[in-house]
Specification:
Number of domains: 1
Subcellular location: Membrane
Shape: globular
Order of helices and strands: HHHHHHHHHHH
Strand content: under 5%
Number of helices: 11
Organism: Thalassococcus lentus
InterPro entries: AA-Vitamin_Transporters, EamA_dom, EmrE-like
Keywords: Membrane, Transmembrane, Transmembrane helix
Mean pLDDT: 87
Protein name: DMT family transporter
Structural class: mainly alpha
């Protein structure tokens, strides 16, 4: 039960990141890449303070560190760059589809053998997302932004798989963020796509700081806490609940409408996740 509650809290933190990101960018108070950088810096500051206060040390090395840092940067900047142009629903499908493929492939290559029930549940849950998020009408897909979202999905999958090797979740997450900060600033300067500058507002900056320090920094440390106790494929499927939670958050905090499609999709996603993770007794 404790593992279930911690995993649920982690998914809520991930969904809150999506809501905060959408709220900040929709207000026009900050640009996507600037949001990603402030989010990264705020997360690094929060985690470094906690690591020094609670562990009295800071460790830069550790198993899976390079993969985790690279994965974190790919995710944060691929995600921000993709949503400059990509439809949010299609973007979520590309992201979570890529995460599923990356984590299932990595887990299988690592020796995990998920049962047929888990494959079926993952397919059902992703089908529910496709039902809800597939764009209607004419779809204008930007290749470079779609590739950026695929990179983000691969990055998050790699970051999550690397977290299963973490000896101390807090120290590992703090090291990932602190190392990523200077590399992220270099990546920003080297981005091949030019974007119009956006005037920063206190609201935009505040939402980025909350996203970085709380729902990213602490949320990712919590994710690294539960990952070693979850099969890689279970961790992958559990994340399919994030868009549903994020949309529910949009309904509660951004006055978005509750629809029948959402109810049906939520039932399919939650049913698929349950089918994937629950062990059915054989009589």
């Amino acid at each position: 039960m404790r593992l279930f509650l911690l995993t649920t809290l982690t998914m809520i933190a991930f969904a809150a990141n999506s809501v905060l990101n959408r709220a900040a960018l929709a207000s026009g108070g900050i640009g996507a890449i600037e949001f990603a950088n402030i989010r990264l810096i705020a997360g690094a500051a929060m985690l470094a303070i906690l690591a020094l206060a609670l562990r009295r040390q800071f460790v830069f090395g550790g198993p899976g560190r390079i993969a985790a840092v690279v994965g974190l940067l790919l995710y944060l900047f691929g995600f921000s760059l993709a949503y400059v142009s990509l439809d949010s629903g299609l973007g979520a499908l590309i992201l979570f589809g890529t995460v599923q493929i990356t984590m299932f492939s990595g887990s299988v290559l690592g020796g995990e053998r998920p049962p047929a029930q888990r494959w079926l549940g993952a397919g059902l849950a992703f089908g529910g997302l496709a039902w809800l998020l597939w764009p209607t009408g004419q779809m204008d897909l930007s290749l470079i932004h779609a590739v950026a979202m695929i990179a983000a999905g691969i990055g998050w999958g790699v970051y999550s798989l690397a977290g299963r090797k973490a000896n101390d979740p807090l120290l590992a997450t703090a090291a990932n963020f602190v190392i990523a900060v200077p590399l992220g600033l270099i990546m920003t300067a080297a981005l091949p796509v030019q974007m119009d500058p956006v005037a920063w507002t206190n609201t935009g900056i505040g939402l980025a700081v909350i996203s970085g320090a709380i729902t990213s920094g602490l949320g990712y440390a919590l994710w690294y806490t539960v990952l070693p106790r979850l099969a890689g494929t279970v961790a992958a499927v559990a994340q399919l609940t994030v868009p549903i939670i994020a949309m529910l958050g949009g309904m509660l905090f951004l006055n978005e409408a509750l629809t029948l499609d959402f109810v049906i999709a939520a039932a399919l996603v939650l049913g698929g996740v349950t089918l994937s993770v629950v062990r059915w007794n054989k009589s």
